[in-house]
Amino acid sequence: MKNRKIVQRSALLTLIAAVLTAGTAFILSGSASAGTTLGASAAERGRYFGTAVAASKLGDSVYVSILNREFNMVTAENEMKWDATEPSQNNFTYANGDRIANQARGNGSRIRGHALTWHNQQPTWAQNMSGSALRSAMVNHITNVATHYRGQIFSWDVVNEAFADGTGGGRRDSNLQRTGNDWIEVAFRTARAADPGAKLCYNDYNTDGVNPKSTAIFNMVQDFKNRGVPIDCVGFQSHLTNSVPGDYQANLQRFANLGVDVQITELDISGANQAAVYGTVTRACLAVARCNGITVWGIRDSDSWRTGQNPLLFDNSGNKKAAYNTTLSALNTGPTLSPSPPSSQSPSPSVSPSSPPPGGSCTTTLRDGTRWADRFNTEITVSGAANWTVVVALTPPQRFSSAWNATASVSGNLVTLRFNGNGNVFGITTLASGNFTRPQVRSCTAT
Ligand code: G3I
């Protein structure tokens, strides 16, 4: 019985992994079968359902049994933040973050990294810094932490809460902001270099509808996409009280239309309408193809940072609340997601059959990346060309899963990877089907 459950769970995780790494997805009408847990139901729809986890609670058997049963994405509530991971300058401590990461991996869950930079929860030594010293310390921090967790993180909150509340729609004042307006893009570029396989997110609160704050963030994301600053996703914390703005879904969709994924990252809802609002938020995410999933900010009401507001899905004893039922029911009646058709069916418009033959050749260096039970990463560095096309061959029965920092198209066992403005280090995730042979480079052409 236990084995059958493990097999079912692993099939679901494989499905969610395939869909989540496939890039663009579209919504199919109709729905999959009814899942009996949040994570399983979300996975059947190509999404995840996650929770914030506190390392100090991993010895609590009620907490851990709900965690393992219901969730397939985990965020460290505090343990991967700057004050936790670098308590004194250049002295990194990962024990509690690693406990959470190991627990998640053991349960087949993915991990959202939270958060590489934030004006809050900085160690005292960083709070007292400014200017170029702080900028260098930030870069060093991101490089170390993202490198430590390289290959383990589904998405990183690279920058948390950098925009001001109110009607102004500007940046929040902070020691990081005072190092120069470009600190956010420096943070994203640094994170990309350290962990090219993680989706890189901007994360904030009070961004749950179209308002001056969310629009200021929208403008930044649009600017980043236009200028090739590496950003992959936007997190909407969604700390809500009794209601959700009527344009919640439309707001998620306008960000998705910029070409980034969206994620509900810290959901908790207080008030008498709690159950209904959980259902509304869940349906909104499912209605947006690029909404990867939902994370609630804790398991039981007693685990919440919002003391006394009971904003979560389980009561203090670990019983399912009405809000749990509306959430699961919204998941179970939601549409399914399907990866977009193989890009070989829609060739890149930049290469037409009448294009002249490409110019000179370039060279590649391959490096093995993270390996999972079912798939593995390979990092490829191109030298000798600023703009390139690389063709790699997979070894059947391997299949292409996804690429980062390159645009991919697939034809048989050949994958063509084209420069996409994100530099000369790119990578490919290969579905192994039992064969972990590295992809072989067939050509590297300067274009
Ligand atoms: O661990 C110490 C404990 O040793 C000490 O005795 C106690 C005394 O105050 O403090 C404990 O640390 C607290 C920590 O949570 C762990 O419980 C901190 O004081 C407290 O400030 C900290 O609060 C966290 C808060 O971020 C800090 O801003 C919350 O747990 C955490 O849920 C919350 O999470 C944030 C997200 O990261 C970003 N978005 C908003 C969200 C809610 O504020």
Automatic annotation (TrEMBL):
Origin: domain of life: Bacteria
Domain (GH10) ranges: 32-330
GO MF entry, a single one: polysaccharide binding
Range of residues in the leader sequence: 1-34
CBM2 domain: residues covered: 355-447
UniProt-annotated catalytic positions: E266
Known catalytic reactions: Endohydrolysis of (1->4)-beta-D-xylosidic linkages in xylans
Keyword vocabulary terms for this entry: Carbohydrate metabolism, Glycosidase, Hydrolase, Polysaccharide degradation, Signal, Xylan degradation
Stretches for region Disordered: 330-362
Protein's GO biological process: xylan catabolic process
EC number: 3.2.1.8
Family of the protein in this entry: Belongs to the glycosyl hydrolase 10 (cellulase F) family.
Name by which UniProt lists this protein: Beta-xylanase
